[in-house]
Design a protein that fits this description.
By secondary structure, this protein is of the alpha/beta class. The chain has one domain: Spore Coat Polysaccharide Biosynthesis Protein SpsA, Chain A. Helices cover about 30% and strands about 25% of the residues. It contains seven helices and ten strands. Strands 1, 4, 5, 6, 7, 8, 9 and 10 form an eight-stranded mixed beta sheet that branches. A two-stranded antiparallel ribbon has the order 2-3. The model has no long low-confidence stretch (mean pLDDT about 90).
């Protein structure tokens, strides 16, 4: 499958509409690698993996669309403070019914393109409902969903655990991919975890 076709069939949601209250500053603008912001890095890595990133921003940081590279798409969730479910539903509106996969990632879960490529390759080899990275048996992020789950993804609700409900429902169907790096577990929740991860994985 050529690169152009891959990008028209495989999409990623980068959830970036929250206010990052625990971090104390907007995560999208944090420096990460080679002079890139965290948001720019995320979008670039998905593009390198031949996945089209759909960036979901909030009203408060809509101006960060300037960080999004050509080839990515941007949508604004005007109720970004009401949980990630709304951002997922907002982003899904931009994904065509003809897609093959949807990867869901938060802006504070930066990964290199090689991780996304491995997840994508695993999907095309096995065609599971969900592909998830893991490290030493612990499930990480991002999760890659088959388009067969798209109707259920579009029906998630914050009141019923959102995306977690689908993960729990199909847990036995998850194809776990073991990685040799703890990077797949990294989550930049606060300033301490950000600096620690940047020292380990950023540049």
């Amino acid at each position: 499958m050529n690169d152009v076709k891959l990008k028209t069939q495989n999409f990623a949601l980068i959830l970036a509409a929250g206010r990052s209250t625990r971090m104390g500053t907007c995560k999208t603008a944090l420096p990460w690698s080679n002079g890139q912001t965290l948001l720019r890095y995320q979008a670039e890595q998905f593009l390198q993996a031949n996945i089209t990133p759909i960036v979901v921003l909030g009203s408060h940081n809509a101006h960060r669309r300037a960080d999004c590279p050509p080839g990515s798409r941007v949508v604004i969730n005007h109720q970004g403070d009401r949980g990630k479910t709304g951002s997922i539903l907002t982003g899904l509106k931009l994904i065509p019914q003809s897609c093959s996969t949807i990867t869901v990632s938060a802006v504070d879960q930066p990964r290199p393109a090689s991780i996304y490529q491995t997840l994508l390759q695993t999907y095309y080899q096995k065609k599971p409902l969900i592909v998830a990275p893991c490290y030493r048996g612990k499930l990480g992020h991002p999760l890659l969903f088959s388009a067969r789950l798209l109707p259920l993804l579009k029906d998630i609700q914050e009141s019923s655990l959102g995306l977690r409900k689908i993960v729990r429902q199909f847990y036995a169907e998850i194809k776990q991919v073991e990685f040799t790096t703890a990077r797949v577990l990294s989550d930049l929740n606060n300033e301490e975890s950000y600096h620690k991860a940047r020292c380990s994985f950023g540049k």
